[in-house]
Amino acid sequence: MMHQFVAVLLLALALFPVAVNSFTKTDFPPHFLFGASTSAYQVEGAADQDGRKPSIWDTFALAGNGGAYQGNGDIACDQYHKYKDDVELMAKMGLDAYRFSISWSRLIPDGKGPINPKGLEYYNNLINELTSQGIQPHVTLNHWDLPQALEDEYEGWVSRRVIKDFTAYADVCFREFGDRVKHWTTVNEGNMYSMIGYDLGLVQPQRCSPDSIFNCSKGNSSTEPYLVTHHMLLAHASAANLYRNKYKVKQQGFIGFNILVHGYLPLTNTSEDVIATKRAQDFFIGWYLNPFFFGEYPAVMKKNVGSRLPIFTNRESNLVKGSIDFLGVNFYYAFHVKNNPGSLQIKNRDYLADMAVERIYIPENITLQEEIPITPWILERMLHSLKNDYGNFPIYIHENGQLLTRNTLDDQPRVEYIREYIGSLLEMMRNGLDIRGYFVWSFLDVFELQSGYEASFGLYYIDFEDPTLRRQPKLSALWYSNFLNNKTMDINSKITMNIEENSSVLSNTPLLHIAT
Ligand SMILES: *[C@@H]1O[C@H](CO)[C@@H](O)[C@H](O)[C@H]1NC(C)=O
Ligand SMILES: *[C@@H]1O[C@H](CO)[C@@H](O)[C@H](O)[C@H]1NC(C)=O
Ligand SMILES: *[C@@H]1O[C@H](CO)[C@@H](O)[C@H](O)[C@H]1NC(C)=O
Ligand SMILES: *[C@@H]1O[C@H](CO)[C@@H](O)[C@H](O)[C@H]1NC(C)=O
Ligand SMILES: *[C@@H]1O[C@H](CO)[C@@H](O)[C@H](O)[C@H]1NC(C)=O
Ligand SMILES: *[C@@H]1O[C@H](CO)[C@@H](O)[C@H](O)[C@H]1NC(C)=O
Hints:
Bound molecules: 2-acetamido-2-deoxy-beta-D-glucopyranose
Shape: globular
Low-confidence stretches: 1-19, 505-516
Strand content: 15-25%
CATH topology: TIM Barrel
Radius of gyration: 22 Å
CATH class: Alpha Beta
């Protein structure tokens, strides 16, 4: 498998030479942030401890994930108990920022109502530990883990009632943590949450129409993805409005929203495929950014979805418009887009049929369970396209990383992936994009959404058979640490590592030798 991707990489490099061949951290603007990401259910563990109640992710994982993989987040990386050690590793690595999420059902176990004092204490401890080490907390409020109580009561994001409860939850977070947290992201990957949770029914809360290939017991793929996104937009806007009115002057923070940005390139240069590519972008990205920048959904969505697309009142439209201070972008994969008008003939169309495109992975035969091709030039193209459509707004790359089998300590392909993207960021900024930070997904080997504990993105390896869950740096952790400590990173250099030196990051002994 690997050779195929090396070949693809070399081809990509040959066709699209990276302008920046050698770089150091000081080539980046002084306030540019380098970090790493995780999310609550994927790292915390202690799922039923100290008053936490289940989220929709607990329910999904404990039910067996639709058979796709085994495992759950009951223990995960146990960051709930090991946060001090983890923050120490972050500090030694040299991270500027840590992106994590708050478990809503740990802080407010029933989704609304009383605050759990132990939950409050945990996040205060984590945030204090970070800030005492000079690491900025970048906090996501909802990362695929709505409290199960709200799912049971009113079907969660499908209902408008979520807007009020989300705003009250955000209010607690701003009030309790906002003196130290300056970067808030309301929702992670809103577009994928809606699509794979409510159209495909592949992940929590596993809702889809009865005729979907996944056997959902509830849902409606024709309507719910649109309702869910509508409510996410309104919940975001409501929380942002609250922040601006009640906290902003005092706390001076920023509110953003996060989406997954796929790379989209037309399969051919025919006008059909070029227009289809624009349509795919409108469905995946414009679905959120048009409301954020213009207060309404893209015209092509209104046309194709018709009366199933919710409508913003004037008041709502004005509230949503201008409600993000920054966009969080997660980027991994790219697709070729082919026009597929036939899908508009289907009765009871779902979200994907409304889009009327066929998406073909680049390269065509990749599966989601193997190494991801390295395509920073496609990310750059996507970001220029957003700048062109919406203006030059601040962007944080919130997630980017390489999937490998978990026990690969010598994760050279991950090093190549991260190095190519970081090197390319310099070029992107020189070309005028307003990128403020870059977070590797993921800091540790976490409980992955689609691969459980089988494959992972972590900079640190965790042997889940080891009762102490010891963290071991992979080559990528050592590479990143070298970079963060201003070692020159030559794009053509071969990185050598003696795995026996794997404690260098942990113990702060001299950093690795980079052979050129
Ligand atoms: C989904 O909702 C629409 C609009 O209410 C309805 O026409 C359709 O029959 C529903 N589909 C399913 C599978 O329930
Ligand atoms: C859905 O249920 C059918 C019938 O029980 C079964 O054959 C099929 O494998 C199930 N599909 C999934 C994705 O679980
Ligand atoms: C489409 O046109 C562009 C610009 O002329 C070219 O770079 C690209 O290779 C063409 N793509 C295809 C699939 O023909
Ligand atoms: C994927 O495509 C490449 C190039 O066409 C080919 O060399 C490789 O064998 C294919 N891999 C699989 C798993 O089909
Ligand atoms: C980082 O390295 C570059 C290149 O070697 C050097 O010019 C710069 O002064 C270094 N910065 C710091 C803070 O050490
Ligand atoms: C590095 O990791 C290996 C493999 O787990 C372990 O046996 C070894 O003790 C570690 N080396 C150091 C210096 O900690």
